[in-house]
Amino acid sequence: MEERNRKIIDAVIRKANTVCPESLALIGINGSFMTGDYYEKSDLDLLILINDDRGWQLGCSMIQDDLQVGHDIYCTRWEDLQYDANYEHPNISKLMDSEIVYCADEKYQEKLLALRQKAKDILEAPFSGEDYEKAEKELREAEHCYAMAMLSGESSRVSEWAGGVVYYVENAIAMLNKQYFHYGVKRAYEELNAMKKRPEKLCDMIDHVVSAVSAASVKEHVTILMKETTAVFHQVKKTIPTEKKPIAADIIGGTYEEMYSNWRNKMYLAASTGNRHLAFMSLISANVMFAEISSQVDIGDYDILGCYNPKDLQQTAHAYDHILHTYLGEYRKGGVSERRYSDIDAFVTDYLMNRQ
Questions:
Q1: Who's near 144: CB < 8 A, 6+ residues apart?
Q2: Orientation of helix 202-211 relative to helix 215-238, angle to 10°
Q3: Which of 148, 199, 137, 218 is nearest to 171 (CA)?
Q4: pLDDT tens-digit profile of 270-280?
């Protein structure tokens, strides 16, 4: 197998010298032959790093009949490794672990090592809100796949989307732990079980998903997986210190008036006409605005959707009014005054005089 691997590597180098001189930067071995997990049917995973588009000619997929092994010889651009170095996903072993076996120029090795160091610095830094957001992006992808799995009827489609859930949940957990996968799919459970921030029986839950034989069973187990994973994320989020600015006019000035204008009268109109849709969607919009403001400044907590009572829209309108009144109190505490006028003429006079 070592002779076979050497022949493949030598062939790539020879072809590069023939068809695209200067395009090949370096070659590294990654995957099972780097980790020691190879067996008699293992293919050779290579990092073939190219400098320009001519280097794509070095890529090739083929089947070796005598051993019945397939090989996928593909190329990687510097841009790909630069993205990996930002640790936007946990599948960066190609960057971090590849054993360099050929280098056209020492400067390429130095460039690669610099990218590795950049990723290493990110991984070794204390877990931050930015790290949480990166992990949460993977969780959002899992949530999308989960929704599609639950909406699908055909068993194969349910399994397809459930597979997406498993993939992104594994990524999300790795990111939540600021780790990357060293060993690939064969040893995924081993790596996941070694991570501290995860559901207690994560791999068991994943195994239940991939072992389910019916669409209903897949949905049942993928729901458990999503619930437990989301719970872990909520726990971790509570530990992240939030830095919010104090209330100030330049940040929230005009927001109370906007909330009053956009939704207060709609709530009472909905109550008088029995329009549940208007009431509900108005609260949804208000909730978005409150959440956006709350993410920036310390205005306290507001349970906007807790106002909604589809059986009593009048009570719903009063509850929203109460929240507005509470927010106005915070508004004034921060030294922000709402703009009120006795009539439209008073507004016009002030509006035309105000140069700001």
A1: 164
A2: 160
A3: 137
A4: 999 999 999 99
Which residue do the tokens 């105000």 mark?
354
- Report whether 182 contacts 173 (CB < 8 A): no
pLDDT tens, residue by residue, 201-238: 999 999 999 999 999 999 999 999 999 999 999 999 99
Alpha helices in 177-301 (DSSP H): 188-193, 202-211, 215-238, 249-252, 255-259, 265-273, 276-294
* CA distance linking residue 24 with residue 28, whole number of Å: 12
DSSP string, 25-58: EEEEEETHHHHT---TTPPPEEEEEESSGGGGGG
Please report, for residues 32, 35, 58, 81, 295, the alpha-carbon distance to residue 26 in angstroms, rounded to integers and kept in the order given. 19, 19, 12, 13, 46
Element (H, E) at 69: strand 69-73
Dihedral over Cα of 213, 214, 215, 218: its sign: negative
Cβ distance 24 to 101 under 8 Å? Answer: no
Average pLDDT over residues 294-320: 92
Residue 144: closest CA among 171, 164, 163, 173? 164
Which pLDDT score is estimated for 336?
A: 83
3-class state of residue 103 by DSSP:
strand
Please choose, from the candidates 23, 93, 92, 78, the residue with its C-alpha nearest in 3D space to the C-alpha of residue 52.
Answer: 23
Using alpha carbons, list the distances in angstroms from residue 97 to 28, 45, 72, 124, 237.
Answer: 9, 12, 19, 16, 30
Among candidates 202, 196, 256, 261, which has minimal Cα distance to 229? 202
304 three-class SS: coil
